[in-house]
Amino acid sequence: MVRFTLKHLFSSLLLTGLSGIVCLPPAALASEPIRVILDHDGGFEDYYAVLVVALASQGKTPPVKLIGVTTAPNGESYCNNSHGYPELKQTVLGTFSAAEGTIDGITQKILSVAQYSKAKIYSGCDVRTTTLSVPNETDEFGKPLAGTGYTPIRVQLPIAGKPALEPCLFHKEFVFSERDIVCWNEFNRPFRDETLKYVLPKAQDALNQFSLPELDLIRPKKKAPDFIAESICDAYRSKKPLTILSVGPVTNLARAYIKIERSPKEYGCPRKIKLSDLKSVLSTRFMGGAWDTNKADNFDANGNYRLNEPFPTWTAGNIYFQAGEHIFGMHHLPFPGTNFQAIQTGEQKKAFNSLNNAEFNFWIDALAMAKALNSGIPVSIVPLNATDSARLQGFADRLKNNPSKCATAPAQFIQTLQFANSPAPGVFVFDTLFLWDTLTATSLWNDFVNFENFHDLEITTLTNGDPTTVTGQLTAAELFRRDIGSLFRRGQVNNPVKLALTTKPASGDPDFKTTIQNYVFGLVCTAQ
After folding, report:
1. CATH number, residue 506
2. d(C-alpha 330, C-alpha 34), whole Å
3. N or C: which end of the chain has fewer CB within 10 A?
4. Is residue 139 domain-resident?
């Protein structure tokens, strides 16, 4: 996901150095490849993960078998005819069609670059949508100006439905003159556009250069949650282990869980099955969250948690530690128009909520994450901290400097994409970033990360207008503005949860950057 700005902003978080044990999905213990459904939201590096898993799934004895790709309706995704797309994107799309520019269309091109036809694409778009009437003119807090008109905007809904979109009405995104709406995240829109500007054309260039056909992989008649639910029940019946690998918000997975709970027989599960019964064959791995060990940033001098203070101190990441509790938090934006960089780097580091920089994947649909964490199905998480050492720097040059080895479509796609986003001579934005999702994906079949058991994980989740969460320090109206309409409640998570806190360089490698780049180099430069 954009994550690339949010991740880049907070990728310097401190690592705890805790030692742990590796959590592998059940299939990793057997000789059979790990069966995987990859769920993503279409950010720049999500497509690297799709490409790498597809390449690793090929050959005589692959360690992993990609059986399907599902695309998220939120986060970085571009769904057709929503969020102001595609009618406002023709200048960005150029000669590409609107369908090609959707998350499904770009995913198909990436799988075509890998020439992998064994995984079909199932869209999470349009499972639930709504239309919001957005004021054409507002004040700095999003309040409509007198006499202003309204524009209807079609948006994709998260698990919480339309009430979860109410905070958008007070958000800076709705003040933009160009009505391209991504609920909650003002950073999201320009970085979604980068997939249209760079990922889409570079994937097509690779197909053209190597005369590769574009595969027909999109299955429009079956939605992502239905495919995931059916695949889970099939795994249970056949006793074939399955891993859901999610490198975006987990909306599709949460919806699949709900479908199984409500109508298990419809999806092939026994009538009286519980979600926790599926743990014998099902495991999940997520890229998301961040780990913060600086208690001073989270608690005042009296040891009280700085939740609804008007100006709490800044925290790093969206997990904090309190007397043995590890708690995921939610992202809360400051007032519209606030200088975000000043808040992030200023001496006082004041924000409107102490969880102001929660990691994007978990924040964008926290209720879906809460559903996954309360399912009883094993969860392993690769948070932002672990990805700090999975750096992309120099990888494009390495591919470029090995033309004989890397004369493949996947290698050329990555090489040209790394150099594509160049705002100034010698400055290549993508080459300064990280293999966030690729690390999470490849850790399934490589000993790349150290896991720590988290038996007492809690998640703060979205709820609107819950009076029991108001501390009295601020009025409900003020909290609505400052917390973009979202107050807090906590639900205890009883799942088996493991969190990857550090990475493991291979023997002889000076750092993990070398280890992860060596692995990806080997895949993309040997692809036939």
Report:
1. 3.90.245.10
2. 32
3. C
4. no
